[in-house]
C-alpha cells in the first residue's frame, strides 16, 4: 500500500535508524567539500569511511589522486549472490554570496516538510538515505541477499577528475555487477518517480584575448580594438539569438535520437517551459517555448553556454580604458556522437575561419555523454520494483538533461545503469535554497530496501 505524504512523514519521524542517519546528513551538510575550491574533501571522505565501517562495511579510502575515492562493500553470505553498485559523490558546488539563501547553506534546516542545504539533494542526501535502507534491511534480516558496493567520488562537480583512474584500479572488484544505481533523480510535476538511463557530457574551456601589454587610454577607442570588444564579437559567432549553435560541423556529428528514445521522452518527460520559468523566476524569454522543441533540445541536443565573462575595470566610479585582457569561461553540453576534444578542435577552426585567431582556447574539463535504451533485465526489474512501491507507473527516460560521468563508469565496468532519487522538480540543485521533501527522502529509503529485497 502506498503511503500518503503525512503517513511517510510520521513513519520517518518514528524510524530511529532513518533519524540517526539524517543526523549524519546534518553533519555532512555542515562539512564543506568543494573540489573547485579544494575545501574539505579528505575530511568528508574520512567521515564517510567511519560512517560505513560503523554500519558493517569493508571500506577503502584511496587518496592517491586529486579527490579521495571511497569504496564501501557489504557482502552477502550467498555464494551465488549478485552485486548491486551505488554510485554517489560527496563533493558539492559552492554556495557563495552570488546566490540568495534563506538560511545558512551549510546548516541543514527543516521547514514545513522540506530540508534545505547545499548537497541535500546533490548528492549527500542520497548517500545517507541509501545507507539507512541497508542498515534497516540488516536489522530485520541479519544478512543481505545481494552484495552491495558504494563507490563515492569527490570531483563529480568538476567533471570527475581522475575517476577513470580509480575505476581502472578497482575494475576487477566492480565488473560483472547486476545493476549500478546512479547518484540521483527526481519526481516530476505529476509526482511520478523518474528512472533515467543516461546523461549529457560536457567540455569546459576558457577563451582569452591579450590585445596589448597594458590597458590603453579610451580616447583611442575609435582607432584601436580592445580585448573586450574582440572577445564579445568572437562570442557572437558561436550562437544565434535563438540558441542555435553556429559552429560549422559541430551539431552535424551528434547522434540522432531513436524513435524509442523520442517516444520515452514524449511520454514521460514532464519538464515544461512554463515550469522552468517559475522555478528560476526567469526574466528573459525562453529560447524554446513549444514543448516538443523544448524537450528535444533539453534531452537530445548540444548547447553552448557562457559561464562567466571577465574584462576591464569593475571598481568604484569610472576608469577610462580600453581593456588589454578579456576572458570567458565556456562550456558545451555534449550528446552521444560528440567528444570533448573533437568539439574543441571544431570551435578553434571556427574562430580562425571567422577571423578571431587571437582568441586562445584552453580546455579545462571534459567528459563524454551516455544514453541507455532501458531494456536490460536488471533495469526492467528496478522499474517493476519501483512501480510496485509507488503503486503507479513510473517515468522511464533514456537520458537526463544533466551531466555526469555515466559514460566513464559504463566504459570501465560495462554494467547496466539507471538513476532514481529523492529530489523533485523544484529541488534547485546548484542554486540557492537547494532542497528535498522529507517524505521523498523516506520513500527513497523504502524503495532501496525493496530493491534489495527483490534479490532474495
UniProtKB/TrEMBL annotation:
Keywords: Hydrolase, Metal-binding, Protease. This is Succinyl-diaminopimelate desuccinylase. Its EC number is 3.5.1.18. Residues 198-355 form the Peptidase M20 dimerisation domain. GO terms for molecular function: succinyl-diaminopimelate desuccinylase activity. It comes from Streptococcus moroccensis. Pfam families: M20_dimer, Peptidase_M20. SUPFAM superfamilies: Zn-dependent exopeptidases. Coiled coil: none annotated. InterPro entries: Cyt/Met_Dipeptidase, Peptidase_M20, Peptidase_M20_dimer.
Amino acid at each position: 500500500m502506498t503511503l500518503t505524504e503525512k503517513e511517510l512523514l510520521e513513519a520517518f519521524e518514528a524510524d530511529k535508524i532513518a533519524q540517526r542517519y539524517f543526523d549524519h546528513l546534518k553533519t555532512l551538510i555542515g562539512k564543506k567539500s568543494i573540489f573547485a575550491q579544494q575545501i574539505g574533501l579528505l575530511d568528508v571522505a574520512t567521515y564517510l569511511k567511519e560512517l560505513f565501517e560503523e554500519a558493517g562495511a569493508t571500506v577503502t579510502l584511496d587518496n592517491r589522486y586529486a579527490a579521495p575515492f571511497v569504496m564501501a562493500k557489504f557482502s552477502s553470505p550467498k555464494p551465488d549472490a549478485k552485486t548491486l553498485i551505488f554510485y554517489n559523490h560527496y563533493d558539492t558546488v559552492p554556495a557563495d554570496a552570488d546566490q540568495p539563501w534563506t538560511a545558512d547553506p551549510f546548516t541543514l534546516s527543516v521547514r514545513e516538510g522540506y530540508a534545505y542545504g547545499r548537497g541535500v539533494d546533490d548528492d549527500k542526501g542520497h548517500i545517507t538515505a541509501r545507507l539507512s535502507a541497508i542498515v534497516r534491511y540488516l536489522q530485520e534480516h541479519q544478512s543481505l541477499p545481494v552484495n552491495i558496493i558504494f563507490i563515492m567520488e569527490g570531483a563529480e562537480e568538476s567533471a570527475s577528475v581522475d575517476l577513470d583512474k580509480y575505476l581502472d584500479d578497482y575494475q576487477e572488484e566492480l565488473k560483472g555487477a547486476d545493476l549500478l544505481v546512479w547518484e540521483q533523480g527526481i519526481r516530476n510535476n505529476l509526482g511520478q518517480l523518474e528512472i533515467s538511463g543516461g546523461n549529457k557530457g560536457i567540455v569546459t574551456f576558457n577563451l582569452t584575448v591579450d590585445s596589448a601589454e597594458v590597458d590603453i587610454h579610451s580616447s583611442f577607442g575609435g582607432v584601436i580594438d580592445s580585448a573586450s570588444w574582440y572577445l564579445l564579437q568572437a562570442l557572437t559567432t558561436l550562437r544565434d539569438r535563438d540558441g542555435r549553435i553556429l559552429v560549422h560541423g559541430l551539431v552535424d556529428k551528434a547522434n540522432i535520437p531513436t524513435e524509442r528514445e523520442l517516444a520515452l521522452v514524449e511520454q514521460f518527460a514532464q519538464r515544461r517551459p512554463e515550469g522552468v520559468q517559475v522555478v528560476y523566476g526567469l526574466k528573459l524569454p525562453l529560447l524554446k517555448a513549444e514543448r516538443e522543441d523544448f524537450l528535444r533540445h533539453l534531452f537530445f541536443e548540444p548547447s553552448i553556454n557562457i559561464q562567466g565573462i571577465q574584462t576591464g575595470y569593475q571598481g568604484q566610479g569610472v576608469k577610462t580604458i580600453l581593456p588589454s585582457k578579456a576572458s570567458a569561461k565556456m562550456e558545451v553540453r555534449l550528446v552521444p556522437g560528440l567528444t570533448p576534444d573533437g568539439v574543441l578542435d571544431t570551435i578553434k577552426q571556427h574562430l580562425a575561419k571567422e577571423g578571431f585567431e587571437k582568441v586562445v582556447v584552453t580546455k579545462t574539463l571534459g567528459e563524454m555523454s551516455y544514453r541507455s535504451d532501458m531494456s536490460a533485465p536488471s533495469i526492467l526489474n528496478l522499474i517493476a520494483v519501483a512501480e510496485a512501491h509507488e503503486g503507479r507507473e513510473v517515468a522511464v527516460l533514456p537520458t537526463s538533461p544533466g551531466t555526469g560521468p555515466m559514460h566513464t563508469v559504463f566504459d570501465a565496468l560495462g554494467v547496466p545503469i539507471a538513476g532514481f532519487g529523492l529530489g523533485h522538480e523544484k529541488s534547485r540543485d546548484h542554486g540557492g535554497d537547494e532542497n528535498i521533501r522529507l517524505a521523498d527522502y523516506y520513500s527513497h529509503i523504502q524503495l532501496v530496501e525493496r530493491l534489495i529485497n527483490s534479490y532474495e
